[in-house]
Amino acid sequence: MSAEARLKVLDRAEKEIMKLSRTDIGAVYEFMHKFRNNPEQPGLDLKSLHGDSRLMAARVKRDIRALLLHIGERDYLLIGVEHRSSVYEDLDRYAYRINRVTGGLEVMEVDPIDMQPVGDSIIGRLLPSTPAPAPLFSAYTDAQLIDLGVSEPLLPGIRRIVSEEELVQLVDRAPQVTTDVLFALYDGKTYDEVLEQITKPVRTTDDVDVDDLAAAVQRPATQVTTDDEALKFMLAESFERWQVFLHPTQRRLVERRYSGPARVGGGPGTGKTIVALHRVAHLARQLHPGTTKPILLTTFNRNLAADLKTRLLALGGAELLERVDIANVDRLAARVVAEQDPRAPKRKLDDNQAPQLWRKFLSTENGETTWDADFLAAEWDQVILGQALTSRSDYFRARRPYRGRNLNRMEREEIWELSERFVRWLAAGDSWTWRQVAVRGAALEMARAAEDKYRYRHVIVDEAQDLSAAHWRMLRAMVPAAPDDLFVTGDTHQRIYDNKVTLGSLGINIRGRSSRLTLSYRTTRQILAAALEIMSGETYDDLDGGQEDLAGYRSLLRGGQPFFCGARTWEEERDLIVTQLDEWHRPQDGSVAICVPTKELATDVMKRLEAEGIQAVEIGPDGPKVGDGVHVGTMHRFKGLEYQRVIISGVTDGLVPRMMISRYRDADPAKYQRERQRDRSLLFVAATRARDELAVFWHGAPSPFLSSRRQ
Ligand SMILES: Nc1ncnc2c1ncn2[C@@H]1O[C@H](COP(=O)(O)OP(=O)(O)OP(=O)(O)O)[C@@H](O)[C@H]1O
């Protein structure tokens, strides 16, 4: 009798498939189609493997077999792909278990002779005869390790591990949670820290029945794909793992139903953007079909928005893209204003021109004022626009944190007057700043919301740390308060624009719906350690008035130590850059980037590369101009990018942090601290763009942020 079957693919099998040749991947793809149509068709030769009636093998092609688990009735799970000889030789080496902590299904290989996981035999050979070093995990009992989520069948092998090399071998094919837990303990985290940071986020809330495979396959801890999209991607060579397999912690955040606004934090490279993209796809699947765009996906700047669009297309295709509005937040505000206020000024000025504009305004329009232009510019930018204050009485009542000097009522009256005149003066030149556009956009959207007019059903925000109060007010007003209304991802350690907010005070209550990702997929442990050193000694907020740190932030990737080197002069430092590129064999395929603090240095570096016959490609506001070459850009441009190798150059005292901020040191200590923290974050962002290798150069004295390099 023929009957269709449901076939899912376990991530473990998917990894094995990816190691096959393209022709064999194609054969697996064909096999899956045939199997779904009728698993009993004779050509597939489906049979139970001795030892376990649920474990089955089927024919993919002459020398390849699929290893399957029969979940129940017509449900099967592809758990491995093997060459025929190995399938029939050592069938007992496969073990599958339902993890009691995560409730997920775990499949692993165990040794046929002594039922120990593969790797033990190698470990056995590696063990020196005398004297035996202490096993790495002897401080923990079996029960403790199991409580942390370690897979039980692997325990005997784990007990014998005495070195990092053996640990790496054992965890190579171990389930994800086991790997995470063992590495965290190995890194020196305490039992309680691991329990809190690694186990708790993946612990299932259901009662786990260790025989119920069907329930286990449904849980997020079992990483499966339900269709053959992944294989299609692989064949098209556009496949990236994140498109299909999320870490259980990530998946939980994506699929949860939140009773209101929710926030996901976490260090660089932990997959916040990936989570935001999957969240969009998840929410879109639950919407009624239609032609509208009920979901907004927004971020801080233009090139990041363009990148989100490309990635969302890869994840869900044109169909998903059609339901989602993607725009950077300033463009969104400009759109709102253009739609509702056609008389608004046309020319939009960069916010950091404000001090210069105030100076010009005061000298041409108001010769007699005693106020300092920088002070007024900061008061207008940070307090009036920063808090999106639209009336005189709001300004009289406003708290002015971080502004140093107190202002009495009369002084506020004067500043408000001057600000109004300044705005009129700008408008007379048909100009205003982007911050003004955002404030106007927020006011217009709030007026619409007061009439129950909303633009979206769901709003997803990436790079949330950089949005201003006005941006948040506008976004809040674009979506009605309801479950799953706002979902925001970001990392305050990477705040590189001067916008610090408390979401609660802006009508966005994330209390109790805030989570953090801790596993970096991008950077090696060695690079992470160097980047974290840059951040030492500062405190960071959690976007809601509290503090946040990077506790538990880690990576399973390994590589060489980052290279730090100083030169005497800028000329010599450029020699260092060329030498470093030579050492890397001058790759010009877009895998290397050079990051510098200023535009002038970027121009100098590009000239030097060109003189060397190396194609230098500038990273502009929309990202690198072309994909090839060696990319060169200022630190601000690096947000959202990722390279195999990165050189950060010009990390010199006076450039990082910028010399000009020292004028605030006494005049406005709070501003000084903020600016210094921003520059530190810029360096942190730059350092965490590197996947495999990082080199950091300076000339003269190194930046104070490289404290351990200073004599
Ligand atoms: N589950 C996953 N499987 C495989 N790769 C992943 C996964 N999650 C994230 N990645 C990869 O890790 C890298 C970083 O992801 P992403 O850009 O989402 O991190 P982020 O937290 O937003 O980083 P940043 O804060 O630095 O912008 C990307 O290359 C992404 O493809």
UniProtKB/TrEMBL annotation:
Chain positions recorded as ATP binding sites: 266-273
SUPFAM superfamilies: P-loop containing nucleoside triphosphate hydrolases
Enzyme class, broadest EC rank: isomerase
Top-rank taxon, per record: Bacteria
Magnesium recorded as keyword: no
Example GO biological process: recombinational repair
E.C. designation(s): 5.6.2.4
Keywords, sorted A to Z: ATP-binding, Helicase, Hydrolase, Isomerase, Nucleotide-binding
Protein name per the record: DNA 3'-5' helicase
Organism the protein comes from: Actinoplanes missouriensis (strain ATCC 14538 / DSM 43046 / CBS 188.64 / JCM 3121 / NBRC 102363 / NCIMB 12654 / NRRL B-3342 / UNCC 431)
Taxonomic lineage: Bacteria, Bacillati, Actinomycetota, Actinomycetes, Micromonosporales
